[in-house]
Design goal:
Layout: E1 3-8, H1 15-22, E2 25-26, E3 40-47, E4 50-57, H2 65-82, E5 85-91, H3 98-108, E6 114-119, H4 125-129, E7 141-143, H5 152-161
Parallel strand pairs: 1-4, 1-5, 5-6, 6-7
Antiparallel strand pairs: 2-3, 3-4
Helix pairs in contact: 2-3
The protein binds guanosine-5'-diphosphate and magnesium ion.
Family: Belongs to the TRAFAC class TrmE-Era-EngA-EngB-Septin-like GTPase superfamily. EngA (Der) GTPase family.
Protein name: GTPase Der
Subunit structure: Associates with the 50S ribosomal subunit.
């Protein structure tokens, strides 16, 4: 079994953009657990000879704010269960939102490695805006731009250090 990396975070932070950048090929979803909504994409990737699977979560979350929050919580809990490493994606344009704090609270309780990924850092000006994400209480973070790809090499270097 290769290491499983789950990408979590609230909608619109750029999880799927990052997923598409990280994966080399998509996997068919083989799921023996029936009756569970697995709202996720699976892919395979590799960095410096280390292979891993990537799960993109929360693709179809829709509805009212309440449903929204419950769904995100469920997605994060599922990811915590099945992944070996969690990438928690946040958005430097929006800063820390209440929903980010909710997700951070769940992630602070686990012993699995969590990498905080500050996305949409498209230019040097935004590097300093990323400081506020220390307040999530999850330690250091990596800044990236999923659309340009900058920082994703450093992210992958960090990722393979933890497995
Ligand atoms: P998800 O809901 O977390 O999966 O987010 P998506 O990957 O669907 O991206 C949401 C929006 O953010 C899209 O319009 C993306 O083009 C945009 N986006 C994603 N990554 C970046 C980034 O690094 N910089 C900027 N400026 N926009 C981004
Ligand atoms: Mg998505």
């Amino acid at each position: 079994m290769s290491t499983i990396v789950a990408i979590v975070g609230r909608p619109n932070v750029g999880k799927s953009t990052l997923f598409n950048r990280l994966i080399k090929r998509r996997e068919a979803i083989v799921d023996s657990v029936s009756g569970v909504t697995r709202d996720r994409n699976y892919g395979k990737s590799e960095w410096n000879g280390k292979e891993f699977s990537v799960i993109d979560t929360g693709g179809y979350i829709k509805g009212s704010d309440d449903i929204f929050e419950a769904e995100i919580r469920k997605q994060v809990e599922l990811a915590i269960d099945e992944a070996d490493v969690i990438m928690f994606v946040v958005d430097v344009e929006e800063g820390i939102t209440p929903m980010d704090d909710e997700v951070a609270k769940l992630l602070r309780k686990i012993t699995k490695p969590v990498i905080v990924v500050v996305n949409k850092v498209d230019n040097a000006m935004r590097e300093k805006d990323a400081y506020e994400f220390y307040n999530l209480g999850l330690g250091d973070y990596i800044t990236i731009s999923s659309t340009s790809g900058s920082g994703t090499g450093e992210l992958l270097d960090e990722l393979i250090k933890v497995f």
